[in-house]
Amino acid sequence: MDATMINPFITATKNVLETMAFISCKPGKPFVKKEDIARGDVTGVIGITGAANGTIAITFEEACILQIVSNMFGEKMTKIDHEVADAVGELTNMISGQARKELEALGKLFDAAIPSVVSGKGHTITHYTDGPKIAIPFKTEDGGFLIEVCLEKTVD
Amino acid sequence: MDTSIKVLVVDDFATMRRILKNILKQLGFTNITEADDGTSAFEELKKNNFDLIISDWNMPKMTGLELLKRVRSDDALKEIPFLMVTAEAQKQNVIEAVQAGVSNYVVKPFTAEAISEKLQKILG
Hints:
- The complex is a heterodimer.
- Chain A is of the alpha+beta class.
- Chain A has helices at 3-21, 62-73, 82-105; strands at residues 26-27, 31-33, 42-50, 54-60, 110-112, 116-119, 133-140, 143-151.
- Chain A has one domain (3-151): 3-Layer(aba) Sandwich (Chemotaxis protein chec).
- Chain A is built from three helices and eight strands, in the order αββββααββββ.
- The longest helix of chain A is centred in the middle third of the chain and has 24 residues, at 82-105.
- Chain B has one domain (7-114): Rossmann fold.
- Chain B has a five-stranded parallel beta sheet with strand order 2-1-3-4-5, with helices on both faces.
- The termini of chain B are close together.
- The chains are: A alpha+beta, B alpha/beta.
- Chains A and B meet through helix 1, helix 2 and helix 3 of A and helix 1 of B.
C-alpha cells in the first residue's frame, strides 16, 4: 500500500478531531503491525468495500479518548462507558467518510458499513481480510491513538 | 429563523444526536425529538407534526436516503424541510440526495456555524 492510500486517513483524522473536538494531533511514522492485540483501550472498526475490500480500525488510549469525547460533548467524561464507545463509533464513521471522499478524488471509490466498537484492556482487533495491517500512530496532548488500515490487496 | 418549530433529529449514534441537539439548543430550538433510524423516524413523522427533519444517511433498517424518499412521496409529509447531515461525502451521494429532494446537505465533521448557516438557508 503506497503513501497515496495512507495520506487521506491522516488528513481525515486531523480534520475530524480538530473540527468536532478542537484537538490537534500529530501523526507518526506508519508501520506494518503484526499482532492482533489492540494498543489502545477502545477501538472502532469499520468495513469498507469497493476499489479494495478491508477494514479500518481506530484504537484510542483511555486518557486520549476521554479528552476527545469531553470536548465533543462539552462535558467531562471520566470512564469508557457506552456513551464514549458510541462516540468512538461515530468518530470512526466520520474519519472513514472523510478519507473515502479524498480517495474518490484519486479515482478510488469505496463504500462503508456501519462501525462496531470493542473496548477493554488488551482486546484484539479482527480485520476481515488477511492483507498487511498498516498502522499510523498519532499523538495528542492527552495520549495517543492508532489507525490500522487493512486491505485485501494493493490498490492500483 | 423561527426556533419554536418542532425538529426531528435522526441518527443511529446517540453521540451525533447529542451534538446536534446541543447545537440546536444553542441556536434557541427547544422542541426537539430524536429517532435512531429511518423506520422509527417515519413512525414519529406519522404520529406527530414536524417542521424540520435533520437526518443521518448511513443507518440500519432504513437509511436517511430511503427516509427522504418516503417523506417526499407522502402527501402529508412531502413539504417538510429535510437537512441531511452525513459522513457520506462522495459526489454520487450528494447527487442522489439532491435528486431525492433534500433541502440541504452537511458533511460530517461540521462546525456549529455550518449547521446554523444551513438552517438559515432552509428556514430563512
